[in-house]
Amino acid sequence: MTRDEIAALIPHAGTMCLLNGVLSWNRSHIRCIARSHRDPANPLRHAGRLAALCGVEYASQAMAVHGGLTAGGERPAAGYLASLRDLTCHVARLDDITEDLVIDAENLTGEGSRVIYAFSIVAGGRDLLSGRAAVVIDAGGADMGES
Fold this sequence. Notes:
The chain is α+β, with helices and mostly antiparallel strands. Helix content is 16%, strand content 36%.
């Protein structure tokens, strides 16, 4: 999938669509790639830096793409992170990572309105961020436009 195809599938628009492509996916797992962490105009940057915790948003977008793909290519209902568990940051920042980010998300359990994913972000074979996220799907949710 290309960035444009991803943007059509998730509720994030413009520069808030952080992913550049989908490398692979199946019913339980997705692997995405991102280059936007190096972009000085990344909307998540603060004081010119992109904190490692912003990787949670990259993982969340991968989860949203996975939800859409497993729903037959339809834009999924908006969701929100209900909780994060076992979150580990192996770096302080993402903006100084020169390699592309590879984001993996695996649906551990749940269907319908509640799901739990394990996620990790690596670059150049180096672990950057990992954790688990509980996501609640809000069938009445609104789009998450540009910030």
